[in-house]
Amino acid sequence: MIEFIYLKQPPCRYTMEKAPKLKEWIVSKIKKYNCENVLNLFAGKTIISDGSFKEIRIDLDKEMPLLDENIDADIYIDKCIQNNVKYDCILSDPPFSIRKSREKYEGRYIGCYTKLKNKLPLLLNKNGIIIEFGFTAMGMSNSRGFELKDLCIVAHGGDHSATIITVETLK
């Protein structure tokens, strides 16, 4: 059965910047699925790890705190594939709308996210999870070998679209 939670938080540039309950929920999912190493692919400002797992932080913006690498996500993924690097969990919270990209990220936008998503399963250990943020609940989908386990809707109020977060396991 899919677990579902509904949260409210004001809109902000970084998804978890003013959202302690959301961060707590994400950490609980990482622990629930026994993840020891987590790839935070579009890390932003918020550090997810509470010390119980290793968080690898990747972001294109060099101003973000405690980055492991300041690099484009697609390039990092290709590097991991070449070196057979695997993770228990991938956290993917890209700038997923052109409007948000223009307003909040100096126009940086994850243009061809589908191509990137096709590569992500190659970075996961068996039974690994992907926690994905977006405006739809499509997630990684069955077609890539994933099963939806948990769903979170974050309402931002006003005319802001809700953020939908899927937690999926690789079958």
Give a structural overview.
It is built from four helices and eight strands; from the N terminus they run βαβββαβααβββ. The protein is α/β, with parallel strands linked by helices and 171 residues long. The protein has an eight-stranded mixed sheet, covered by helices on one side. The two termini are 15 Å apart.
Main β-sheet, spatial strand arrangement: 1-7-8-6-5-2-3-4
Form type = globular
**What is the CA-based Rg, rounded?**
15 Å
Structural class from helices and strands? alpha/beta
In N-to-C order, the SSE pattern is: EHEEEHEHHEEE
Oligomer classification: single chain
Supply the number of helical segments: 4
- Can you count the beta strands? 8
Q: Termini distance?
A: 15 Å
Contiguous runs where pLDDT drops below 50 for at least 5 residues: none
The proportion of strand residues reads: 25-35%
Main β-sheet description: 8 strands, mixed
Average pLDDT: 87
Helix content: 10-25%
Annotation keywords:
171 residues, alpha/beta, eight-stranded mixed β-sheet, 4 helices, 8 strands, globular
List the helices and strands and how they pair.
Layout: E1 3-8, H1 20-32, E2 37-40, E3 54-59, E4 69-70, H2 73-82, E5 87-92, H3 98-104, H4 113-119, E6 124-134, E7 146-155, E8 163-170
Parallel strand pairs: 1-7, 2-3, 2-5, 3-4, 5-6
Antiparallel strand pairs: 6-8, 7-8
